[in-house]
Amino acid sequence: MHRRHALALLAAMLLAAPAAADTLYVLDTNDGFLNLRAGPGTTYGIIERLTGGQIVDRLGSSGEWDQVRLSDGRTGWAHSGYMGWEYRPQRAYDLMVVRTNDGYLNLRSGPGTNYGIVRRLNWGQRLFFLEERGSWFRVSLPEGTSGWASARYLTPAW
């Protein structure tokens, strides 16, 4: 009888244990901060402003929004496009557009050709590296525009 109770108690403890969280870094943003919100969208109130390099634990997600926990235990929602597995502070230009067949490279709103075009990048244009997803890099331009470009057409800028 005691063994059955012990097993039931162990099962209840395992089911009640929180799932392992992913550790993410807040990436650098053009305005210097990322809003942590009360819900998954810009219509929810701002709880706090997060800064580049800050570490958070991802608890779950809803669309393009991740529910995260701060080191002090507070939770909120942040846009997943501004968080990554690795933190690389913005510095001198990281990348440069290389020659393409049609003379320009499309900067897109997401990591794939199925996303809309934000603008066209010219050969030799220099960019800041923000994040990598497969064969796509999220980059930003000096004036602040950011988007996704195929890594195939980018090279390190020395």
UniProtKB/TrEMBL annotation:
Q: Print the keywords alphabetically.
A: Signal
What Pfam families does the annotation carry?
Answer: SH3_3
Q: Which SMART domains match?
A: SH3b
UniProt keyword annotation of Signal present: yes
Q: Where is the signal peptide?
A: 1-21
Indicate the segments forming the SH3b domain, all copies: 21-87, 93-158
Q: Which InterPro entries match?
A: Cell_Wall_Dynamics_Protein (IPR052354), SH3-like_bac-type (IPR003646)
- How is this protein named in the record? SH3 domain protein
Question: What is the protein's species of origin?
Answer: Wenxinia marina DSM 24838
